[in-house]
Amino acid sequence: MDVNEFREFAKATIDYIADYHENIRDKQVLPDISPGYIKDKVPSDPPKEGEHWGNLLKDVNDVILPGLTHWQSPNFYAYYPASYSFPSVVGDLLSTGLGCVGLNWITGPAITELEVVMMDWLGKMLDIPLAFLNCSEGPGGGIIKGTASEATLVCLLAAKDKTVRRVKTLRPDLCDSDIKGKLVAYSSDHSNSSIEKAGLIGSVPMRLLLSDDEGRLNPQFLKEAIEQDLKLGLFPCYVVATLGTTGTCSFDNLQEIGPICEEFNVWLHVDAAYAGAAFVCPEYRYLKNGLEYAESFNFNAHKFMLINFDCSILWVKNAFNLINAFTVERPYLKHEYDSAPEYMHWQIPLGRRFRALKLWFMIRTYGVEGIRKYIRKQTGLINYFSEILKKDSRFEVCCKNLALLCFRVRGDDNLTKMLLNKLYERKQIYVISYTYKKNTVIRFSINSNECSEADLHFAYTEISNQVDDILNKNFI
Ligand code: PLP
């Protein structure tokens, strides 16, 4: 493909994407296909000769689109948002188009340096403690990761390394493997699956402590668990608190958890994958009170901040904890400049994408006020939907936080389960279930930028009609 063909192909693709978004409401949110559907539509062997790009977009229509779950559809209320904005898409396109990879600073000075500035912009936007910012006097700083899972794992590995070093100074009789075999980490049983997975990958048992009724980590249980483990000769090393759990968007109390971590010298990591973006709005900042106790803080700009997947922001108070754990030098990685940070020592991969571009483009085109307006629109819509449900005595709104609520059909738990099945079979709106106070609930998250009050009335009508059907059948 020469550069002129590229121009044509890329422009046609941009038009295709714009059309997709303009017509997103016409698309059924969940696809009508079965596993393995694509095998019959795509040849089993690659083409011998290259073909014209013109065939490709047609095949996207015929082969790919029927197999998509439309995350940007206003009828997608499952999980959390797959954030989206046009400036972010263009930033990502440019990042790919420029074709640069950041290994060390010299392989992409702009890649590192824009990232440093963006991390400070974001930190100031969220009003997080100064100690986390690159521009602070101390050793703190921010970095873009792919996902929250990666951020949790990286911090677990750093906490592990830090604890081994600390214990060795106290117990010189122990070697690394003695200590590593006795490390233990903690979170709540409502924390995201990625927290347990970080423990699995990092070979540190992750104790998932029983949450309170609202799905929050119980500080008393945490303290007791740490004390118990110390008595057993184990080394507590890592606690993950969640601001905005995946199930119900509940918030762990950092003001109570933080001092416990401090007392026992345990690394506190705060996972605010979804909710972190909301701290751009001053009215939500009280939810992060106590963040000053955290050693690391992570949120996904790709969830609730208009940035396309992937873009997960991690700040640490002391980057040397990462550098000590991850630095591996080679002659081919050396260069003549004394530059910091060298992000290759803050992460698992060597190479990194130029993700700061999409942040830069989005923040500049929306401005902080534009981002606040977006978050307030989404949280306002959930309040609107909550009022609709509350007017209908068949439903109980169980909890509501930011742009997420959970509701159920009053009465037997099976009614809610039946409703979920019907909604899922009909594929008009996409919701998922969770368990709240031992009941099945329907999680309803405002995700699409396009979602409007009219869409919520459509969703309510769909839900209401299915409940009518269920209640009539059960009555007969
Ligand atoms: N933490 C929380 C609270 C989440 O809700 C999620 C995903 O929904 C994650 C972590 C994992 O995010 P990621 O896919 O970026 O690893």
TrEMBL record:
<protein>
    <submittedName>
        <fullName>Alpha-methyldopa hypersensitive protein-like</fullName>
    </submittedName>
</protein>
<dbReference type="InterPro" id="IPR021115">
    <property type="entry name" value="Pyridoxal-P_BS"/>
</dbReference>
<dbReference type="InterPro" id="IPR015424">
    <property type="entry name" value="PyrdxlP-dep_Trfase"/>
</dbReference>
<dbReference type="InterPro" id="IPR015421">
    <property type="entry name" value="PyrdxlP-dep_Trfase_major"/>
</dbReference>
<dbReference type="InterPro" id="IPR010977">
    <property type="entry name" value="Aromatic_deC"/>
</dbReference>
<comment type="similarity">
    <text>Belongs to the group II decarboxylase family.</text>
</comment>
<keyword id="KW-0456">Lyase</keyword>
<dbReference type="Pfam" id="PF00282">
    <property type="entry name" value="Pyridoxal_deC"/>
</dbReference>
<keyword id="KW-0663">Pyridoxal phosphate</keyword>
<dbReference type="InterPro" id="IPR015422">
    <property type="entry name" value="PyrdxlP-dep_Trfase_small"/>
</dbReference>
<dbReference type="InterPro" id="IPR002129">
    <property type="entry name" value="PyrdxlP-dep_de-COase"/>
</dbReference>
